[in-house]
Amino acid sequence: MQESELKDYVEILNTITETIRFTYEYEKNSKINFLDTTVKRVKSNGQMTLSVRWFRKPTAADHLLNYESSHSKSIKSNITKNMTTRILQATKDGSEQKEDLEILKQMLLNSKYPVKQVEKLVQEACQSGNGNSNSLKKTDDFKFSLSLPYVPGIEVLKRRLEKLKVKLYFSYPSKLQSHFNRNLKTPSRAVIYQIQCDCNPSRIYSGETKVDFEKRVGVYIYIAL
């Protein structure tokens, strides 16, 4: 399908209903981006094949979770291994894999990861093929589970509890959302309401407002006073 044909087809779809709008993206230089991959048409030996490679948006940040942040080392290690595994799964060409892994390493260095730690984790992920499956213990191996707030150094306690078949999970109670007032309510707008009148005989007033409902009730109280 040519781009002009695709454009006409999308325009027809957009005439069906006003509440739904379709958009389209057409390939450029025989390739198109989809999620975190780039799909490219490659002609080889007279046959057309598809080549897939890991993709990052130009606006994406060149760093990950900061290594000096107050998170457990397992989280930081898993981030590195999972990112490495994703590159190995998405990028099929060997030379392109090396280029993408170098990009990942630079992102980790920008996030203050130690050089030796980066090389070690990336190498482990490449050798295992699935990142961290060899380092995880089965949940069935533990008889009890426990959750404690994470503080630097608590990994020592975790290792000792594992010997007693106790699985320790880390929690992070001091999140950004905990510093906001949860009692704040979004103003109710464009509502239909009923107000019970205490007059004699009792009556019910039904109304409609486009402004905040509480403000509208306040106006009624002011008038009544």
What does this structure look like?
- It is a single chain.
- The chain has 225 residues and is an alpha+beta fold.
- Among the domains are: 58-128, no CATH class; 141-176, no CATH class.
- It has six helices and seven strands.
- It has helices at 3-13, 73-90, 94-110, 115-128, 155-163, 213-224, and strands at residues 31-34, 37-44, 47-54, 144-149, 166-171, 191-197, 203-209.
- The strands form three sheets. It has a three-stranded antiparallel β-sheet with strand order 1-2-3. It has a two-stranded parallel sheet with strand order 4-5. A two-stranded antiparallel ribbon has the order 6-7.
- A hairpin with a 2-residue loop joins strand 2 and strand 3.
- Helix 2 (73-90) packs antiparallel against helix 3 (94-110) and helix 2 packs across helix 4.
- The longest helix has 18 residues, at 73-90.
- Mean pLDDT is 82; it is low at 130-135.
Nutshell version of this structure?
It comes from Didymodactylos carnosus. The protein is of the alpha+beta class and 225 residues long.
